[in-house]
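Hello everyone,

My group is preparing for a crystallization screen and wants a predicted model to guide construct design. The compound we'll soak is zinc ion. Before spending weeks at the bench, it would help to have a computed complex in hand. I've included the protein sequence and the ligand's SMILES below. Output in structure-token form would be ideal because that's what our pipeline reads.
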Amino acid sequence: MCVWLMAVLLLQSPVGALRRPAQPLLRSVASRKLCCSSQIEATTERTKVPIGSAPEFAIAGDSTVETPYQRAVVGVHFLISALNLYSAGTHLLPTLASALDFIPLVLTVLLSTVLGDLGTGIFHWSVDNYGDIKTPVFGAVCVAFQGHHDTPWTITFRSFCNNVFKIAYGTIPALLLLPVLINDSAPLVKIFFTLFINWWLISQEFHKWAHMRTPPSPVVKFLQDSGVILSRREHGLHHTSPFEGHYCILTGICNPILDKTKFFRHLERLVFKITGNESNTWKADATLRSAR
Ligand SMILES: [Zn+2]
Ligand SMILES: [Zn+2]
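Reply:
Good plan to model first. Here are the tokens for the complex, ready for your pipeline.
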């Protein structure tokens, strides 16, 4: 994840070369509302998320058709994940003699979920605000996330593999590194990072579900309504120009504290100080430069 962050933040021209215009996207949403008001759905006063009837793409050649290649990429991701968990499990299982021995495992899963949510927020913030098609590895992801603000309904037309395979370009190398970096004597650490990386990929599917008018199943609706996974309302709060908050898309549990503390404004000032790159939120709303 560190390699991706460095690539997105550093390997772009300082003053932009961004695909997305610097002007507030609210205007484009508003004009869309004027011409196709029947396609606009308001979930709350603050969240007006347009709903289109057909997919529209930010990247030439993009499609909602799932291919064998996309299935293979996602399959490799889950195969390596399974091997990592199996390897960790074989070292952990002999140590699980009583119910109390399971507590560290449960805490590891919970911690991976909370930090996984935070990780999705930092990832989403970075690709929303920096990078373009020329960014190595994640160029297409940057353009897809930034274009998602213009046509948020497109994601709902994607199958699972079609939706997440681009994320797997980052997760596969990260998963391959785990056995190299983590000793077999630390199975909980390996489980933590394997889950953390998986939440990164799976959150993109939760993101899709949060855009669907009708959840794909009653179980998903229950999980959304109970806050176990990202809810439609929580993610709807992100979809208003200048798209400056509510970035976490796994459960959304970290969003209130991150937004209240202006975490991303501090990060943006740090990025600007180090690289000279301005965030897209600053370009859309100059007052965010000094938001404390
Ligand atoms: Zn976004
Ligand atoms: Zn979205």
